[in-house]
UniProtKB/TrEMBL annotation:
Skewed-composition ranges (Basic and acidic residues): 123-132
Family to which this protein belongs: Belongs to the nucleotide-sugar transporter family. SLC35B subfamily.
GO MF annotation: an example: 3'-phosphoadenosine 5'-phosphosulfate transmembrane transporter activity
Membrane topology annotation: Multi-pass membrane protein
Name of the protein: Adenosine 3'-phospho 5'-phosphosulfate transporter 1
Originating species: Macrostomum lignano
Length: 500
């Protein structure tokens, strides 16, 4: 904020600040339940009504109305989250951590939303002593890590790794098949088109499961501390504060948008194409890492990223198969060509959106882990709740929530698929956290890379996707680049450990 604005805010009384906060909360709540037709986000003075009708008809004919729904979703998210962002900036500029009260329902809500650690003092060594979890030095941590590596080939370790591997494969291979089934096939002659509702279902179940786990975590704190000093739970005792609740909103919105683009893309491209696009997300992740966290990368990392992208390009250029529009009835060649071109453009745009939003999500979450006292379960709970608020707001405004629930009521098979999809997504997230916590990110990356290969094979067999020889060569190049990247990263860590 500019200095004059800051001085005006600083001159406000506590009562005035609380009044503005209450009004902002009320605006967010009202926006969440306001019907879409009341908002009228595109006034007639912005665009000619006849032209708008013509564009809408063209989009409907070509089955490419996703930009309109994407814009509607953004307006829904902004209408409920911008008032909360106003609260964040207001209380930070006013100095609520120093001047505001610490007791009461409203002050507690304000501090939780906008201030690190709820506005409390940063936890120091005395808090660590209370938890009975003194921090180890980096040398002690290295010794503990080497001890674990010497024990890594025990039968118990192998069984543990096998269980994590099978859990991830079962959860995400099932999730992938269900995702393709629900978005590209009919249910008794009806097809489900609301990708937003699928995102909401996944996040709602994740939040319902994460909240009790987060509340029960302190009961198992001692056991968690004994397991490994290199685990993610160590961040809970390093003197950092928990993040303001609003910090979860940024990654939540980007995660919602990436998931929405992912579901929507399956209408226009095949599942193997989507999986290969996911495998090539390394370059956007690296770019976001430089922009968000100021990370630097080695030359071999750029080379392997280029190899992966080249393999993806070979796959896409060698696979002329394009997903047909859900309800296309075009009979003349011109309409068919238009439809195929629109499918290709829509699919590529949605996949690019998925890669961009997903890269920002992982980079922002890594920044939160590094800057604040936040564990995986806290991240899952905070992100899920923020995602539920945003998606419910957009659905209520557009009136799509009732129709989606009605579809699930009319189609019991869809309802069962939806429940299983959300369960696989949530359990998969928990297995991901446990695998990274127990075996590290390299092992997890290898497991998920293998999963992507299985996903392409299973989808090609179950849903009969035709892949040419060059397309399979592209798949091989992508996975060769992935495994080369993993090998080089592991070798670099081993060299660094020897130097230390």
């Amino acid at each position: 904020m500019k200095k004059p604005t800051k001085s005006i805010i600083a001159s406000l009384s506590l009562g005035q600040v609380h009044t503005l906060v209450i009004l902002a909360f009320a605006a967010s709540a009202i926006a969440a339940v306001a019907p879409w037709r009341w908002l009228n986000p595109l006034p007639t003075w912005l665009i000619d009504t006849a032209l708008l009708a013509e564009l809408s008809a063209l989009a409907e004919e070509l089955k490419a109305d996703w930009p309109v729904r994407f814009l509607a979703n953004l307006i829904g998210y902004a209408s409920s989250l911008l008032p909360l962002y106003f609260v964040l900036r207001l209380v930070q500029a006013w100095g609520y951590d120093r001047r505001g009260p610490s007791r009461g329902i409203l002050p507690s809500c304000i501090r939780t939303l906008a201030l690190p650690g709820g506005g409390a003092a940063s936890p120091k060594d005395d808090e660590n002593d209370k938890l009975g979890a003194p921090r180890k030095s980096s040398k002690e941590q290295q010794q503990q890590k080497q001890k674990q590596q010497r024990q890594s080939y025990s039968l118990r370790w192998c069984l543990h790794l096998t269980a994590c591997f099978l859990g991830l494969q079962a959860a995400y291979l099932t999730w992938g098949l269900l995702q393709e089934r629900m978005t590209t096939f009919d249910y008794n002659g009806e097809r489900f088109h609301d990708s937003q509702f699928l995102v909401f279902a996944n996040r709602a179940l994740g939040g319902l499961l994460a909240l009790p786990l987060m509340l029960l975590a302190p009961l198992a704190w001692g056991a968690t501390r004994k397991s490994s000093e290199t685990k993610a739970s160590d961040r809970m005792t390093d003197g950092k504060q928990s993040p303001p609740a609003f910090e979860y909103v940024y990654s939540s919105v980007s995660n919602i948008l990436s998931s929405w683009c992912q579901y929507e893309a399956l209408v226009y491209v095949t599942f193997p194409t989507q999986v290969l696009a996911k495998a090539s997300k390394i370059i956007p992740v690296m770019l976001m890492g430089r922009l968000v966290s100021r990370k630097s990368y080695r030359v071999d990392e750029y080379l392997t990223a280029g190899l992966i992208s080249g393999g993806t390009a070979l796959f896409l250029l060698s696979s002329p198969e394009v997903a047909e529009a859900p309800t296309s009835t075009a009979t003349n060649p011109t309409s068919t060509t238009q439809q195929q071109w629109m499918n290709a453009v829509s699919g590529a745009t949605l996949l690019a959106g998925y890669l961009m939003f997903d890269a920002f999500t992982s980079s922002w979450q890594s920044k939160l882990f590094a800057s604040y006292r936040s564990g995986p379960i806290q991240m899952l709970a905070g992100s899920s709740l923020a995602s539920c608020l945003a998606t419910v707001t957009a659905q209520l405004q557009q009136g799509s929530l009732v129709s989606a629930l009605g579809f699930a009521y009319r189609q019991p098979l869809f309802a069962s698929h939806l429940g299983l999809l959300a369960l696989c997504s949530t359990l998969g997230q928990l297995v991901i956290f446990h695998t990274i916590d127990s075996f590290g990110p390299v092992t997890f990356t290898i497991i998920m890379t293998v999963r992507q290969g299985f996903a392409i094979l299973i989808s090609s067999v179950v849903y009969q996707h035709r892949l040419s020889g060059n397309a399979w060569c592209g798949v091989g190049v992508v996975f060769a680049g992935l495994f080369l990247r993993i090998y080089l990263a592991q070798r670099g860590r081993a060299v660094a450990d020897k130097r230390d």
